[in-house]
Design goal:
Blueprint (H helix, E strand, L loop, with lengths): L2 H9 L1 H6 L1 H26 L11 H22 L13 H21 L3 H15 L6 H15 L7 H18 L5 H8 L4 H4 L6 H4 L8
Helix pairs in contact: 1-4, 3-4, 3-5, 4-6, 5-6, 5-7, 6-8, 7-8
Length: about 220
């Protein structure tokens, strides 16, 4: 989606907040479209005889990235009202379900074909959702595993991706806080960790560590 379209979505901020039922319905449609594209990608690599209507990765991946960006834009536009603390229709169950489904879509796409655009947009989307829920149990495990998996890709990607990963990891550390398992911290700060390697990144904004990740 072009930047003009994103700006138009942002300009409707008052509308998104005023009619949250409509907003969550629209977000649900975006999410269903994401899952459809992720499913198309799985079919492409499964070796099945494909229907000619199933688009190739060159079509599915950019559309998935665009949907992730639009989804993030609407959630950001809803702002503080996108929180279980404020009550229905934004509940903890709702945010947890949406976050799990976004994680599944991005992970499925990565397993099919590496796309920096999808991963960058996915990390930003996971971040805006994670800011609204306290991850516990299986969700915490999924988020921690996702964050470490994204970190491993940093040196192969551009600065936008690295910044998105650092922002996401900072949010994960802040949200999980004292419940961070030792295994996660060890992976994060291991001598071969990409986090330490990013200290030598050519882009200054990537080299400057986020406060929660300073080592």
């Amino acid at each position: 989606f072009p930047l003009l379209y994103v700006a138009w979505l942002q300009s409707l901020e008052q509308f998104w907040v005023a009619d949250l039922t409509f907003s969550t319905t629209l977000l649900g449609q975006f999410l269903e479209d994401m899952e459809a594209y992720a499913e198309d990608l799985n079919h492409v690599t499964s070796g099945e005889v494909l229907d000619e209507d199933i688009p190739p990765p060159s079509v599915s991946l950019p559309k998935l990235a665009a949907l992730l960006r639009v989804f993030s834009t609407v959630v950001r536009s809803i702002g503080e009202r996108f929180s279980p603390v404020r009550g229905p229709p934004i509940t903890e169950v709702y945010v947890t379900d949406v976050l799990n489904r976004v994680l599944a879509c991005v992970t499925a796409a990565k397993q099919v074909q590496f796309s920096e655009a999808v991963l960058t947009a996915g990390n930003e989307c996971v971040g805006v959702l994670l800011a609204s829920v306290e991850p516990i149990g299986p969700l915490m495990e999924a988020v921690l595993a996702y964050g470490l998996d994204q970190l491993d890709c940093c040196l192969a990607c551009g600065s936008d991706y690295s910044l998105a990963v650092l922002t996401l990891l900072t949010l994960i550390v802040d949200q999980v806080n004292t419940r961070l398992p030792v295994s996660f911290v060890e992976r994060l700060l291991a001598p071969h960790s990409q986090l330490l390697n990013l200290r030598f990144h050519p882009e200054k904004e990537v080299r400057v560590p986020h406060s929660s990740l300073a080592v």
